[in-house]
Every structure is written in structure tokens, then in C-alpha cells.
Amino acid sequence: MQPLARHHSIFFLIMRRLRAPLVLLIVIMAISVLGLTLAPGPVDESGNVERLSFFHAFYFMSYTATTIGFGEIPYSFSDQQRLWAILTIYMSVIGWAYTLGTVFSLLSDRNLQQAINTQRFLRAVQRLREPFYLVCGYGETGRLICEALDQMRFRMVVLELDEGRIGDTELQNYHADVPALCADARNPEILEYAGLRHPHCAGVLALTNDDNANLAIAIAARLLAPRLPTLCRAESRETAANMASFGTRHIINPFEKFSEYLALALHSPAAWQLLIWLTSLPGTTVERHRDPPRGEWILCGHGRFGRFVVEAMEQEAIPVTIIDKEAPQDFEHRWVQGDGTVAETLLSAGIEPAAGVIGGTSSDVDNLSIAVTARELNPDLFVILRQNQIANNALFDAFDADVIMVPSKIIAHECLAILTTPLLVPFLNEMKSREHEWCTDLVTRLTDRFGWDVPTVWSERINVSRAPALYRRLMRGVEIRLFDITLSPANRDERLEMQILFLHRDDDHHLVMPDERTKIRAGDEILLVGNASARSQLDLTLSNEYALHYVLTGIELPRGWIWQRLFKPAPTPR
After folding, report:
1. Among 99, 245, 310, 404, fewest CB within 10 Å belongs to which?
2. 255-429: which CATH topology?
3. pTM of the predicted structure, to 2 decimals
4. How many CB atoms lie within 10 A of CB 229?
5. Cα 202 to chain center, whole Å?
6. What is the tens place of the pLDDT at every residue in 402-440?
């Protein structure tokens, strides 16, 4: 349905609901006017009975029936006309009372409200003239992503089935209005309303709590907008496999992703610390975690989350004991049937000599109870807790676990890394393959320079649209090194507060922590970490010919026409 058709549907819906009262008002007006023309008036000087014309009768009823303002025109009425006027007054009051009651009832009609909201939503989406992301699902994950995107000045369009959550979008202090619609995102027509085919749509995020809904969104996006990046949440392997079968590029399972983090933490704690620091939400501070110890571990809960954890432990050859109320299907590991919140069960599983415990059930209360009981039995335990609801933050913060796994935060971190800095993913993959000593040295260097506040991570591509000044120089054969662009355009004796992490080249010759003497080529893509001020100054250097010339030579180009003629700039060094 096109927007014009939707507008017409609202009009006809209103007219259908008001058909009866409007017909009643018309009938009352017609009877009243007719009666006034037939009622005998006073006798004039010639002895003739005066009667109202249709015009005067209609004029009289127009102001009398709507305002009850009474005035006898064009002459004083006779008793018969006054009697009829009394009847018409009461008839009009009844008609208008019925009409107003219908109008008030119509205004509270959910179908009409939905139609009006949809029309307003359509207009808001059509007016967007800057890149935006279509967020399907405004739960905990969707809210975190929207807040992070808003901090980075990206626009969002939200689809959510829960009307209460839609209201939350208006309560949040976003920098720009967020078009939001209470609708089922599985409907392809709704996705089109939300801008799936909009020329400025930058990506689709399927973040609902229903795997089937996310699958439907992924299929619709793949067929209707195949070039758009689509990020989908999937908590079951079957759904993830289905999404992958038709080419969904980014599938995020929070349990699988955390198991990868856990395996990395056990294998290379420094790489894990660096990953957390680079991918956390902007505006937060990362606390340095205690490195997970190797030894015997106890897992409480062998559901979807627990199975991924067991696989991560197997990958790192870590022995694990499973506690579950039902016998696990996996009998290759030692298991104890029971409740992990009970001390006797934990003792039977060997909690006293254990190195760590994982509370991985679907209940936040049970996970906290497991952690408290386990810490009382073994104060040195490394505790990992699964937190299912962000609303329980205060409880989990009060316990001070070593690691808290929050599915919504994991998905948000991964989505932001993919959407805002695509180059971060290959860098992290390269980092995972490096030696522990190399990762430790890198973490120390970066955190000593920038602290543990989550830094700004971004990428720059050397092309005519992203770096026009630098690109034109390279096309003229000028040799420019990575070191040159790290200088401040305000004072080239100072370095920008940033670090080049990764250099991606089209010939698959990629460099991790490249040497600053490396020459830049057209088409290179560079991953950087630093602060927001360094990013804005680098943008100036890459795009402004005067700033770039100063950075390269130390000479400020004259900017006015007269000064350009008087002072010829020195040739750029090659």
C-alpha cells in the first residue's frame, strides 16, 4: 500500500464511522428548515401571512443549531414559528450530542490511532535525508544499540511489536527524533514502510527476542534489499544455519560469541582484554579483569548457553563438571544431577578445589544464588555469571563477579563493531592469532596512552570521497607516509592522540600495527584508535588541501587570491 492509499484509508475510515451521525445531522437540518418555511409567520400590514424563505430558514438554523444563539430574523416570529424553533433546538442538541460522542469514541479507536501513527511514521521516514539504520526490536539490545548509534550521530528507524517499548523511544534523550512504529517487522510491507528500500538506509538490524521473527526479517532484507548489510540475532544453531543458507552476512549468537570470548580469555588473556576495550559501548570505562585461571571448572546449567561454554572449555583442554537438574545429553564430561544453588550439590561437584564456577541458568536469581554460595565455599573462585535482564544490574554489580555475561550487551558490541568500523573485525581476527606476549605489549602501550576509557575506533579509506586532498596528492605521485598524517594540522610538532592499528590493502597485503614509515597508497583503508578530537583533526588533514600541505611541509599556503599571487608555495617534497 502506497502512502497516498494509506492516507485515503484513514479518510474513509473516519467517514464510515461518522456516517450515521452525519446523516442524522443532515436529516435534522432538512426537517428544521422545511418546518420553518411551512410554519405561518405574523400578519403584515396588508393582512398577508409572512413566511420564511428557504434561505432565511437555512440561515436561522445554521447559527441556531450550532450555537443556540437565538435571534428572530428577518422579523419577529409568530408563536407557531417559535414553537417549531423550540423543537429544532432540542433536535439539534440531540444530534450534536450523538455526533460528538461518536467523534470521541472514534478518537480512542485503536485502528484509527494505528492508521494515523503509521501515516505520521511514513512521512517521517520519507523526510530522512541522511544515513539511518533500521532497528527491528527495541528491547534491551535495541535500546543499547540506538543509544550508541545516537552518540555517534547516526539516525535510526525503529520497529517494535510492544507498544510500551515504542513509548520509550520518545522518553529517551536522543539528539534527533527517532521514527518508531508499533508493528510486526516480519511483514515485508511494514519493512518497506520503515525504509528498507529507502536510498539512505545504511543497514538492517534484526534484534527481536523471537528467532523466527529475525529469520523472516533476514529473508525479507535479502530479497528486497540484497545490497544492504543485515545483522541478525539468532540464539539457536538451527536458525543461524537457516539464515546462513540464503546468504545472511552477519549472524550473531550471543552464547556462541561469549564462548569465543571465554576461549580467547583462557588462551590469551591480553587479547581478550584488548577485545573488550575496543568493542565496548562508547562513553563507558572498562575495568581490567582478573585473568581466568586454568584448572577444574564447574558449570551450573547445561542449556543453550552451557553447551557453548562446554565447547569452549574443550577447545582449551579445560576439565569441566556440569551441574544440572536433568541429566545432560553429553556424558563425556563429569556431571552432578541437582541444583547449583545448594551447597551440598556444589561440594559434590568439587567446588573447594575448583578454579572457577559459571552460573549459566536462565534465572538471574539462581545465578546470583549459585555465585554467593560458591564464594562462601571457595573465596578464591573465578566467577562468571550470566545476566539475563539488564534491570538486575544493581544486584550483579553488588556481587562483583569477575565476568558478567549479558547477551544484549554482547550483541550490541558486535553490531557496532560491524556497522561502524568494519575493519575492526579482521583486525581482531588477526590479533587472536598473535602470541600472548605481543598482545600483552600492545594492551600495555595502548592503555598507558589512552587509559581504560573506551576509545574512539574508526576507519579511513583513502579515496576521492573520504580523503580528497590526500588522494589527489597520491595521484600526482607524491609519496606520503603513515607518519605524516599523524601530525597535528594545528601544530605539526605535535602528534595526534591516535594510533594506527591496521592497514588493509586491496591486494590482500594487510599490515597489523604497521610501521609509520609505510607509504600510503590510493585505496588503502586504515583502522585507527584514539579520541574524538584526533578523529576530527585527521578528517581535516585528509580533506583540506591547506591543512595537508602544512602537515607535509610545515608551510602554510596563502589562502587569498592576492596572497597566492604574491607568495608562490615551495614544491611539495617527494
Report:
1. 245
2. Rossmann fold (3.40.50)
3. 0.75
4. 17
5. 12
6. 999 999 889 988 888 888 788 888 888 888 788 888 888
